[in-house]
Amino acid sequence: MDFVELEAIEGLRWSWNSWPPSKSESAALVIPLSIMCTPLMQQAELPILPYDPVTCLRCGAVLNPYARVEYLSRIWFCSFCHHRNSFPHSYSNIGDTNLPAELFPTYSAVEYSKTAHGIPNSGSNSLNWANGLSSSSSLSSMVSSSAASVSDGDSRGVRPAFVFVVDACTPGDELGVLKNELLLVVEKLPETALVGLVTFDSMVRVHDLGFSECLRAVVFHGERELSSLQVAGFLLCLP
Ligand SMILES: [Zn+2]
């Protein structure tokens, strides 16, 4: 299939149009593998698999068509950490001609109707957030439809969180348009949503949106390496 056509279907743009199958091939790439993803992209026929995903024991990544599979020994290699995983018992009949749907080459984007106990079901609600999108590509329209289906928080009190990361080197006129779009987006978010704003040029600024008396931001030098623990310390959000 043509890569441009595939991008229109999946919303993914690759630096390479394939996934390196092994650690050595991954390390040999001159240009690193990167994929630009369009979140919440409308997909007319997103397949729903009525069972739980098979995940990598080491990193938790989900089995997908890019994973290297050895059918005879019934193992698969994680695309992300290259860990060697065994298939669960329910996949014992797996083979070249008997593939689970998540390994179909055209099923690189699927939705699972995951169940609490791993019991297959015929759930049909898992696509609500994706199906409700309008066809417009503007940020605010994407969020207006998706926010409608974002609940104000679940039973554990976990609220939806949105962090906006803005490249401050963007030309002034584009930055103005982006700012207006972001304001519209924020307006349409659920009342209880947590919102963060990070801007970056040669410095990284984490803006304190809850401090309304004056503009306040924690500034990090763009060339200084900090551990996530140090960053958490500076942001006063250590556990
Ligand atoms: Zn893994």
TrEMBL record:
Biological process terms in GO annotation: COPII-coated vesicle cargo loading; intracellular protein transport
Molecular function GO terms recorded: GTPase activator activity; zinc ion binding
Membrane topology listed for this record: Peripheral membrane protein
Predominant place of localization: membrane
Occurrences of domain Sec23/Sec24 trunk (ranges): 160-232
GO cellular component, one term: endoplasmic reticulum exit site
Pfam families (alphabetical): Sec23_trunk, zf-Sec23_Sec24
Compartments, as annotated in UniProt: Cytoplasmic vesicle, COPII-coated vesicle membrane; Endoplasmic reticulum membrane
Gene3D superfamilies, A to Z: beta-sandwich domain of Sec23/24 (2.60.40.1670), von Willebrand factor, type A domain (3.40.50.410), Zn-finger domain of Sec23/24 (2.30.30.380)
Entry keyword set: Cytoplasm, Cytoplasmic vesicle, Endoplasmic reticulum, ER-Golgi transport, Membrane, Metal-binding, Protein transport, Transport, Zinc
Domain (Zinc finger Sec23/Sec24-type) ranges: 53-91
InterPro entries linked to this entry: Sec23, Sec23/24_trunk_dom, vWFA_dom_sf, Znf_Sec23_Sec24, Znf_Sec23_Sec24_sf
Family annotation (PANTHER family): PROTEIN TRANSPORT PROTEIN SEC23, PROTEIN TRANSPORT PROTEIN SEC23 G
Family to which the UniProt record says this protein belongs: Belongs to the SEC23/SEC24 family. SEC23 subfamily.
Function as written in the Swiss-Prot or TrEMBL entry: Component of the coat protein complex II (COPII) which promotes the formation of transport vesicles from the endoplasmic reticulum (ER). The coat has two main functions, the physical deformation of the endoplasmic reticulum membrane into vesicles and the selection of cargo molecules.
UniProt name for this protein: Protein transport protein SEC23
Source organism of the structure: Malus baccata
